[in-house]
Design brief:
mainly beta; two-stranded antiparallel sheet; globular; twelve-stranded mixed β-sheet; about 190 residues; 14 strands; 3 helices; single chain
């Protein structure tokens, strides 16, 4: 169910609700979650998961969309803290290892990069859509957030996971808008560099 489609294991909740009509869905209140590989952990006021109708009729529970409402997500940056590229690599690596991922939506949340107990940076007012994809499809995400007091919007698409020459790089398109400035760039994202 949820762990297979998001990589996150639900470790606690206050209440669970199941509804069949108008569309089958599950809602968990005051939920906490963790990535078993230690990259992400956090909590959310609510996790809403919308079930796919055809698999449900066949007796299997699968989801086409999972919303995290007011999430507080911690991303483990490693002991050394690392650079922005390493932080991005942790998140992209987490998403890329999922066999198949449902559409994930973060509403009014925060994301904190941590090294041990130290907060390195925080994104606030995070509203993010991570597109549904299969294991071989590239990662695509878009949304808005506040970083260092500035409201920003952005879109990141991994265009190809195919190595570029001898380098373990991914081809990406990044679009960022911060205030009146906007940047659109094609480039390479090289793991950890």
């Amino acid at each position: 169910g949820i762990e297979a489609r998001t990589g996150l294991k639900v470790t606690g909740m206050r209440r669970a609700e199941i509804a069949i009509l108008p569309l089958p869905r599950i809602s968990l209140s005051d939920v906490s979650f963790v990535d078993p590989q230690g990259v992400l952990s956090g909590k959310a006021a609510r996790l809403r998961a919308r079930a796919r109708l055809l698999p449900l009729i066949g007796g299997q529970l699968d989801f086409d969309r999972i919303d995290l409402v007011a999430p507080e997500i911690d991303v483990a940056a490693g002991n050394s803290g690392g650079s922005y590229a390493l932080w991005l690599d942790r998140v992209l690596g987490y998403l890329a290892r999922l066999d198949s991922q449902t559409r994930l939506v973060l509403n009014s949340g925060s994301v904190m990069m941590r090294s041990d107990s130290t907060v390195l940076t925080t994104l606030r007012d995070v509203n993010l859509l991570i597109e549904e994809r299969t294991a071989q499809a590239p990662v695509a995400l878009a949304g808005s957030f506040t970083w260092r007091g500035e409201v920003s919007t952005g879109r990141l698409e991994v265009l190809s996971d195919t190595p570029v020459g001898a380098f373990p790089c991914k081809q990406v398109r990044l679009t960022l808008t911060k205030g009146e400035e906007s940047r659109d760039a094609l480039g390479l994202y090289c793991k950890g560099k």
